[in-house]
Write a structure and sequence with these properties.
single chain, alpha/beta, Aminopeptidase, 8 helices, 8 strands, 38% helix, globular
Amino acid sequence: MIVLFFFTVLLAAMLLCVIIPANKCRAQGTIPAGEQKNRLAEALKGHVYKLSHEIGSRNVYACRQLAATADYIIYQFQALGYQVALQHYDAGERTFKNIIARRQGRTKPAEFVVIGAHYDTHNNPGADDNASGIAALLELARLAAARPPADRSLEFAAFVNEEPPFFHSEKMGSRVYTKLAKAQGKQIKAGLVLEMLGYYREEAKSQSYPESLTGLYPDTANFIAIVNNHASDRLAAMVVEYFRQGTDFPVQQIAAEKVPEGDFSDHWSFWQEGYPALMVTDTSFYRYAHYHQPTDTYEKLNYENMSKVVTGLQAVIAALTNEQATPAG
């Protein structure tokens, strides 16, 4: 009788899972991969919408909006449980700040992997340039916070003043950050700069290049680019390998020496101090006609593709912060 009772209960449970939709019969707390991607895409869109549509232009000429952007980033980091450090410095008659969230490594805490993106804009909404980079930065921080601490320390840095009038000057936020890091003897093993990650197209001839690269890379703007200098060749090769392990989204490695504007973002600041660093980018004005225009707005970006890029970068970060990976010396 006892055996018959348990058999009856088991049969009823099996029938219940046939009648109830499959997602109701999963173990509590599990989220299917497709649903996770949808959530990531929506989270990325939410950040971009907040920064570009609700806050808008944010720079030295719009300091109130710049401060609101900084407050938003700080709140997001703190909500994830990060201790946030503010790196204040003066430029002109104003004080600006970089925002740094750190997760200390377990076995090699003195070695750092740095993920950075600038949060200012060029007198425009700046959805792709660079709300997309900040959105990815925040979501990568969220994903990292959900994992146990890695071997190396991990820093997420939101840089100020990448855009004019501070572009390529000693007052760029990333330049202040890297100079101080060098002066302190900080061991940055890898720097990944997120610069415009949101615009993609599937039409042929939607991707352009400087003349030196024409014909060497795809003419369809459906990939993410990894831009490196010669000193970062090894790091670039590792990043491409790990990225492909995390996602099937197309990726291309491009040597900065072949591109006249190959140093046009915050990775330049790392290179100035001899740190290995890369720019991760959708190639900016080589495919995006709305670069530095009032039309750089949130609805033009492809958040599903952005989520795939973030997924690939998540795999990159997990590998680079592992003790076995040796991205630099």
